[in-house]
Amino acid sequence: MALKVKNTAIVRENSEIGTGIHSLWIEDPQISKAAKPGQFVSLYTGAADKLLPRPISLCEIKKEAGLLRLVFRIAGAGTERIAGFGPGDPIEVMGPLGNGFDMDGCKRAILIGGGIGIPPMLELAKQLSCEKSIVLGYRDELFLNREFEAYGSVFISTEDGSCGVKGNVIDAIRENALDGDMIFACGPTPMLRGVKQYAKEKQIRAQLSLEERMACGIGACLACVCRSKDTDEHTNVNNKRICKDGPVFYAEDVEI
Amino acid sequence: MNLKVSIAGVEWKNPVTTASGTFGSGAEYSEFVDLGSLGAVTTKGVANVPWPGNPTPRIAETYGGMLNAIGLQNPGMEVFIRRDIPFLRQYDTNIIVNVCGRTVKDYIEVVERLSGEDVDMLEINISCPNVKEGGIAFGQNAKAVEEITAEVKRHAKQPVIMKLSPNVTDIAEMARAAEAGGADALSLINTLTGMKIDIKKRCFALANKTGGLSGPAVKPVAVRMVYQTAKAVKIPVIGMGGIQNAEDALEFIMAGATAVAVGTANFYRPDAAACVAEGLKAYMQEYGVEDINSLIGCV
User: Is B128 a catalytic residue?
Assistant: First the structure.
């Protein structure tokens, strides 16, 4: 069974890389060593009134240094508190959680990140050794995009048209006639629906990283389920646990 | 120093269990905590057939607590019996199976099926606020509480704990009804029905609109109800509602609970239940308490 621990990690760096978007480097050699692209950690706010962990995807993993990079958007009081942590501060963290991306066997990958679904694509881009087209969708303001340039061809879409293709990630894919044999995608559910549809149309397999409100983060509470095509072995109904069986699923296995 | 308690003839090595629904059947948490360090493991609700549960979002955080409306998703009793009972039996702890149903017949089917299985106690959930049929419908009417308790008792081979709802006018009346029906013990509180509105999206935070409130925010209500219940009946009471540490657990014990359950705290401290058991020991050492039983209802 994969190692999974709850530790007190140390914050090493915290910077705001976009409006309300924070990049946090934390040191936890145990979790870093076991982590894979597409997995996530639970971060605890340390506040007595905000008890539940915040699931945050892994943006980068530096195993030798024992570091993890977490890039997240301030969505409420809990993430706002985490955004206030500075170098040297302790932070409770549980991980690595979830299954991560299946990186085997693809030759030409299309990586698609939308909004705060972009960060997990960075470690995937680093670790995938095949040819890569990287599609990043933003509302308006860009972040992290420069960091992808070393790992593949980057295509950008913005809703307001201020950079790249005006529209969404699918518009950018169509406009640039991108092709591949595996899609990896993370982003808001409407985007993932669009990706699933596009992948079906083009007969490309797709791995989608889903999100849902979570409590335990380890598969016990059944808060974060998604509808699955087949009866799930564990739950014996058509529900999969996003935190434990996912967050990454093959598009054909889930109904979104 | 004695931490052992006895509930309906079942001996627990310490008075700490897990609250149903917060711990699965223990497998996920066994990576973080030795299940053998608990007096009992109480499983998530099990029905006669698989239940898919409610749409998502199923949870929402609230100040010092959370709302849930999972809707009793469970794999049904056959998978539970085949997979989860043998798993839990590996550990030196009591197994309490929480039983849910839509009709009395559903409950009885599970209770009868479990009668030949190696489990120590049954906890009958007549208090889930998140399902339309069954659950709380049985728990808010004293006559219904007495009838379903008596019916379950007629078929049960193991001692029966009735889990009571706090969403009632008079908890003592419900407690007495369960006792009159023949319950061997009572557990409370289940969650308090609540609601949260997402003001950014202008909609309900939960797909089910309402959910059950749990966590430290509910503890004073739970302690009060445990006190009133323990005063009203002679059978043992298992207290729960917002317990995070041994100090919280001691409040329940001193209010009259023979044992306690740790629930929501598992979500942010996966070893919370084991820490409560350890903390009780530390308290007894510090205050020179020889027997935990001497603290039950001592206020």
Answer: yes
Q: What is the pLDDT of residue A2?
A: 59
Is residue B266 less than 8 Å (CB to CB) from chain A? yes
Among B100, B128, B203, B275, the active-site one is: B128
Q: Does domain A5-97 have CATH number 1.10.10.10?
A: no
Residues of A in contact with B57 (CB under 8 A): 212-213, 223
What ipTM, to 2 d.p.? 0.94
Q: Could you state, in order of their start, the residue ranges of all structural domains in chain A?
A: 5-97, 106-209, 211-256
Q: How far apart are CA B293 and CA A224, in angstroms?
A: 40
Q: How far is CA B108 from CA A53, A105, B17, B141, B267, in A?
A: 38, 52, 24, 19, 31
Entry pTM: 0.95
Cβ–Cβ of B270/A214 closer than 8 Å?
no
Which residue is closest to A218 within chain B, CA to CA? B28
Q: B28: which chain A residues are within 8 Å (Cβ-Cβ)?
A: 216, 218-220, 244
H-helix or E-strand spanning residue B32: none
Q: Which CATH architecture has domain A106-209?
A: 3-Layer(aba) Sandwich (3.40)
Tell me the C-alpha distance between B10 and B154, whole Å.
19
- Yes or no, beta carbons of B66 and A51 under 8 Å apart: yes
Query: Considering only alpha carbons, which residue of chain B is nearest residue A52?
Result: B268
Q: Where are the domains of chain B?
A: 5-52+72-193+214-295
Mutate to test the interface with B, among A221, A230, A243 (most CBs of B within 10 A): A221
Contact A51 B264 (CB under 8 A): yes
- Determine contact, residues A182/A191, Cβ cutoff 8 Å: no
Tokens of B91: 């550990």
Residue B277: closest CA among B252, B246, B237, B238 = B246
Is B269 within 8 Å of B275 (Cβ atoms)? yes
Mean pLDDT of B83-100: 98
What mean pLDDT is predicted for residues A51-63?
A: 97
Cβ-nearest to A51 among B21, B32, B215:
B215
CATH superfamily of B5-52+72-193+214-295: Aldolase class I (3.20.20.70)
Q: How far is A130 from chain B (nearest CA, A)?
A: 35
Pick the CATH number of A211-256 from 3.20.20.70, 3.30.390.50, 3.40.50.970, 2.10.240.10: 2.10.240.10
Higher pLDDT, B135 or A6: A6
- Dump pLDDT digits (tens) for A3-23: 899 999 999 999 999 999 999
